[in-house]
Design a protein that fits this description.
Elements lengths: L2 H4 L8 E4 L3 H12 L6 E8 L10 H16 L6 E7 L2 H12 L3 E5 L5 H6 L3 H8 L4 E4 L7
């Protein structure tokens, strides 16, 4: 995305919404709903092992993706879906955003303690500091944990 044209575009014209699973997808869609984006594309990244065995069988991951897309469509019936297969989840998010020409990336932090953040490579930090387009951190409800 050309930074000079970013001001000419509505931030919520086309939002990429990365989700991990059905519960995350539903909560993320609900958190995004009040902002009334014009268009939403849901992204599920199937993590590949990069030479090591995959974390889950591809068929199971694809079923999880479909459940996630259905959960988002319960809030945004016209939402598009996009599945990526990658070892680098954050890189896959950036690639998908570029591919669909998203005006912003919206996400809910998965939370977790500092050890979980360390083990995951703190994806949230990478997402907000390395993106080439606006990143919207959606609020977590008190019941999100």
């Amino acid at each position: 995305m050309n930074p000079t044209t970013a001001d000419d575009r509505d931030l919520l014209a086309h939002v990429l919404l990365p989700v991990a699973n059905e519960a995350d997808a539903r909560a993320s869609a609900r958190a995004l709903e009040s902002y009334r984006p014009e268009r939403v594309t849901t992204l599920h990244v199937v993590e590949k092992g990069g030479g090591a065995p995959d974390k889950t069988p591809v068929s199971q991951s694809e079923a999880l993706a479909e459940e996630s897309y259905d959960a988002v469509r319960s809030v945004f019936p016209d939402a598009d879906d996009h599945t990526a297969y990658a070892r680098d989840v954050v890189g896959a998010i950036f690639d998908a955003a570029a591919e669909i020409d998203a005006t912003a990336i919206a996400f809910r932090s998965r939370g977790g303690n500092r050890i979980m953040q360390f083990l995951s490579g703190d994806r949230s930090l990478k997402l907000v500091t390395q993106a080439d387009r606006p990143v919207i951190a959606l609020p977590r409800a008190d019941s999100d944990g």
